[in-house]
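$ fold --in a.seq
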Amino acid sequence: MSDSIPERGPKFRRRAEARPDEVLDAALELFMEQGFAATRVEDIARRAGLSKGTVYLYFPSKEAVLEGLVRRAIVPIADSALEALGSYEGDPRIVISTVIRMIGHRFGDPRIVAIPKVVFREVLGFPHLAQMYRTEVLDKVLPVVSGLIRRGVEQGYLRQVDPELTVRSIIGPMLLHLVMAEVFGITPAGGLQFDKLVDNHLSILFDGLSAPPSAKTWSSS
């Protein structure tokens, strides 16, 4: 009889590799059900079917779990937006419309939109969450969109507007939509309906932002 310890195979390795996602899935369910403040690490461990020590092996605090949720769900949306926006040349209204519709569609998923909701609720108590959200999302996306608006103005697609302030006008309605629902409890009769909000927003936005045809500067290339 061999005294050697059997090697743990692929099934065990897959299980270990899946544990961070299992923790995040359990935490998201609990944050949605009872809120961030009321959820304890032991609650997350119990929901995930893991020990509390195992949770701490991957996430040193409950705040780190929330940061993990942001990085898993929201950062890929920001990265997708950057990929679409970064090298785009031409009428900025086209790519802005595409990106906003993509964000609206993603936010139609309750498990994705739940994460910025939690951040909005808890940001005053945990200001480093706001800093992390800024670093991982806003600081990457805002300069790119500002540059896109600036080029659109220079090329005559857009009116003479301030690019940085215009970015706030572009993303502001979606954020305010969440804040009104989560902070003030004011939700449209049909629910958040992000797709409809996006259609309404783009109509108002481009009616006010678009330059008259006479302002277009045509390139000779």
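$ fold --in b.seq
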Amino acid sequence: MYATDKDMAHLEALYEGRRAFHGELHDHAASGGTSDGKRPLSHWLGAMEALEMDFAAILDHKQVRHMYLPEWKDGTFIGGTEPGAGLSDTDCEVPKLHYNMLFPGPKATEELLHHFPEYQFEGGAEGHFIYPKFTRERFGELIDKVKSLGGFFVHPHPKQVMVSDNPLDYWFRDETGIEVIYVSADSQYTEANYPLYLDLLAAGKRVWCCAGGDEHLCASDKALTTIYAEEKKNVSYLSHLRVGDFVCGPVGIRMCVNDTRMGGKCSFAGGRLVVTVSDFHKSVKNPEHTFRLDLINDKGVVESHEFSCEQPFSIAIDTEDVAFYRTEIFDVNKNLRIALGNPIWNER
């Protein structure tokens, strides 16, 4: 149940040279042009410092100019954009939805937009693009291209835009993100998105749970993401986002099965799972509260342990022949799920 010195040495070696960064993966700024954000990047810089946020993904609509502004800083702002698709037209196979494409900066974003003439991208810092219609096959090609360019694809606020009772309508590719915590951990939107995520896992889909505040007015720390990265640079963040080794929430979770970290897949035969929880962001760190770690597989909760946020907490178990293992962190005093670690899947 509790991790041994050998377990901990192995986990630490897998995460050597990395530290916890807390930030936002879905926001908008007042960058001019077609942006609908209400505050400039200068606001974000000051607010993020006050909130002790390391990064924010600014995903302004129909343009790339936000990534060319003088206030833009690599490692502080992650680039990309949030288009829409489908528009519910009868000749379009992709339902009405939004999608986030995160890249290290403008060049990869522009290459993606140029690669798909449907966007009618005008090119350059002041160039704009439209929201095109896609068939489901073409939309899959778009996601594949995002991945090939080093980007990260997320289906944001899924239940808040799409209307379907079929969970598979919300899935387009494995190894993509779906926004589970939206606006805040206790919002009505998160309450709607969480069952969808569980349904997709139950259907065998390998998707990663994400958080996003979708802030337009002011920076907020209510829907943070935690990434263990080597340095404060976008390429470092994205190298871990792209493989699912991050936490949907403001708590640091490090997990492995043998040499495989969160988001990956490996054989569970003869495996050893190790989990450590630490690095609570100040927005949720409360020494007077009790927190709970739930270790979960496809059959339900395997183990449940209460602990304090003041010290790292670790467990380890021998793996069984189940579909996956994942973790959730609760604030017991609030009876609130505050963080979800991404699964490790069994490669049978």
